[in-house]
Fold each of these.
Amino acid sequence: MSEFIDPPQTANTNCTAEQYEADYARSLSDPDGFWLEQARRLDWVDAPTKGGEWSFDPVDITWFADGTLNLCHNAVDRHLADKADKTALIFEPDDPDGEVRTLTYADLHREVVRMANALKAMGVTKGARVTLYMPTVVEGVVAMLACARLGAIHSVVFGGFSPEALAGRIIDCDSQFVITADEGLRGRKPIPLKANVDAAVDEHDTPVKGVLVIAHTGADIAMKQGRDHWYADLASEGDCPCEPMNAEDPLFILYTSGSTGKPKGVLHTTGGYGVWTATTFHYAFDHRPDDIFWCSADIGWITGHSYVTYGPLLNGATQVIFEGVPNYPDHGRFWQVIEKHKVSIFYTAPTAIRALMREGDRFVTAHDRSSLRLLGSVGEPINPEAWRWYRDVPGEGRVPVVDTWWQTETGGIMLTTLPAAHAMKPGSAGLPFFGVQPQLVDNDGGVLEGVAEGNLCLTASWPGQARTVYGDHDRFVQTYFSTYNGKYFTGDGCQRDANGYYRITGRVDDVINVSGHRMGTAEVESALVLHPHVAEAAVVGFPHDIKGQGIYCYVTLNAGDDGSDALAEELRQQVRKEIGPVATPDRIHFTDALPKTRSGKIMRRILRKIAENDYGSLGDTSTLADPSLVDRLIEGRVSG
Ligand code: PRX
């Protein structure tokens, strides 16, 4: 049986196979010409004449550098001419019986102006950093757009991060303003957003001077005089023009985890990111004006930035935004929302697909999915079994599935098949998007040709590429461009088949992907060693049926301390406090020592193999200072 599945034939498509071939070739031979044309998807105050001006050694990247535009104008105001009455947002609340809020582009414009005026009243100006700690509700999207309108730089922090983590991100970008809600709601569980902001700001030395609070659940919360403001009190409808921005002015910062150190503030700029998200949305989802698009991501992650806020609205699309979870009130919630709002394009993560697959088909088939014409997956490798289920059951075997690979740093989709153009291969992301030049290299940097497996690099810049790490360009250079000089290294392992299709095998660095959430093992280790009983910790990933990867922690204790269930629970709580519930360890393995080389380096390869229950390939253990430790670690392996 062929692994490839032909796409359904579609009469009106944004891209045929022939067009892809021609446009992809042109995007490499004449990138400036190609991207200056794509840039016309947006309205510019001053149209750019320059395309990409970039170097990966030294690292300096610009696109459309002489262009001026505002992305809020592009996402909202410019649609007023012909789409004022078109639905922009359909908000589906956590509670299936709760109130659905529908906003036209005219409504969205009014809301964004109200929010921008509220931000101005707090003192937000062009270039100011504004931290958002918000649920995925209308005001979350509106707040991002209002920042863009004023030229302020938003930094959204996912609501599943703790006050400690929030404080760290506020301090790192010297953010004086926070936008939050009284609470969020996920599966009826309230998330104490405002209380967390209070803990972050009151217990740390932050520069915060203004907190804007949206009344969402109506919970009784504390308001600090002079610092905290109810949104309703500051919102006003007066005129609020869009600030003209240079294409290379920053649009947002988004913190993401890497192999070492604290999370990095990845910085995206205005013009290139706008063009990239607008173009990828148009092609990868083969978007048509009458589509109802739904991306289930939280706005706290890059997917929520690029394919909730910017990509769809830049294209004048109609989309659903959803605050809830896939399993409340039951495992049919996604399909119920699709039926209710007649969703035609649905974009979600493998972890949700796997979790729902496990619950059985009846939750899916209970709902009408005839409106669906395209399904998408993002965030982690999707195993072929889950891919097939997604297509066959929710997709009734009739709709194409796109498996889109990209990263916070890439700004938008980089590898995917195009829905009407390319055969699909379950488990493979597929082909490079326009302008994307993937390269596989071995561990020594040797370039691998043809059918191969190696480390995935990108050899040329693309408009949506992150420009720097906020406040630390050296770290940007070190993290992404120093492993293989002159190339952007993704941190992912990858295979290329005879058809040129790419399949991501997972991270090859010390980053793990837990339910599509990117986690630095070093961050979890730092959180663990803060506990007074812990001497040392080493954290690795292990395969997890639902989450993709789970968090496995090896912990050594101080002399005289014993590992107990109670202590393991304390350590879990410690990590939740330092990072947040998203980083809760799955397994804690107390050990008397960690495997080290004679020079004292922890041999993580061995720890990974033991956590994976893969003892056959432990490799050379003779360089260990204490070879007998391996047997003790295997014996003590924590499972289930
Ligand atoms: O390992 C890859 C995995 O997610 C990483 C990027 O994580 P983040 O920056 O949080 O962005 C996630 C949403 C774009 C990548 O380095 N990843 C993302 N999409 C896929 C994937 N792995 C396999 N297949 C994908 N489609």
Amino acid sequence: MKILVTGGLGYIGSHTAVALQQAGFEVLIVDNMSNSSIDVLEGIATITGVTPQFKYLDLRDKEEVHHYFKTHRDIDGIIHFAASKAVGESVEKPLLYYENNLSTLVYLLQECTKYDIHNFIFSSSCTVYGEPDSLPITEDAPVKKATSPYGNTKQISEEIIFDTTQVSDIKAIALRYFNPIGAHESAEIGELPLGVPQNLVPFITQTAIGLRDQLSVFGNDYSTPDGTCIRDYIHVMDLAEAHVVALQRLLEKKNQVAFEVFNVGTGKGSSVLEVIQAFEKVSKKPLNYKVVDRRPGDVIAVYADTSKANSDLGWEAQRDLEEALRSAWQWEQKVRANKKEN
Ligand code: NAD
Ligand code: WQD
């Protein structure tokens, strides 16, 4: 079975490529390397023993996308990761986000209808829920008005996919990721943020390694037990494995409706201070941090109700917060050691 992984050189795509190959799928990757590098292919090959077929492709180029599908007629399914993902940047450059996250999706779905590709998995986000009315969040919780163009692209994407599945043979699953962290246990692949990390865990590991002076904790006066925000941090390999079972559900036609959504999280919320403490425990290093003002736009608490994924996909997260942080720390150490050598 041949599976096209768009954005397969990126953080989640590369870990999913590993999980797919280990489950026996043949992986084809397209990527424009706007937020990744070709070295990732080597990492995937080292772990799995197989180098995925790779093509440089900018999915915004409709002609090139068409040419790709015309010359690859035997694709059984698509997992679509390719997108821009920085929330703050999306506020500054909304059109870049609407173009990159929406036009690419439309072009791919057009090719699916032309070439009878019926299985489609989409990277959605818990950001579609905004500030939830109750916790843990189930999939039928209302989708709130997005607070950023990035979040809006995820909501619109889900609608585009839903509408398409109603008038075509395409069956689709949107996985709403909570907060992916960590790296493959081999430390051959991991997260590689460009510039100053916006997300908590890469900022923690870069601070611990000495690349940043201090972690700013954004607010400790929220209505949570320790005053800091709560998130559902999921190990990226658990997330990767969720894609494999979602794909199998589509291929085995076990889906109940043409478009399904699933929360992919651990079901457990952790506060920023709890993450810091867990990191200090696994790294055996004290972390230099300071509480500063709240970051505008942060929701107070989000964590998933994963019962739908547990029952329908037969999936649940296997790795805990400490294991995820340990892998993130091993990855950071390896990346910096390699940088020093070069
Ligand atoms: P990433 O930036 O590491 O990976 C995305 C990949 O897509 C990159 O390799 C990039 O070069 C590629 N890409 C971007 N635009 C492209 C284009 N026009 N043509 C071809 N390739 C293109 O991001 P990630 O963290 O792996 O996220 C993957 C998906 O998951 C995204 O859709 C993101 O919105 C979604 N998501 C991520 C998170 C998270 O916290 N990382 C959470 C929820 C949802
Ligand atoms: C986690 C917690 C911060 C950095 C973002 C996107 C979301 C999704 C995942 C794609 C928050 C706190 C952070 C720092 C801190 N992506 N923090 N100091 O905000 O839950 O979600 O990534 O879909 O759409 O918005 O993740 O890692 O940025 O923050 O105190 O330097 O850590 O305030 O409470 P977030 P995050």
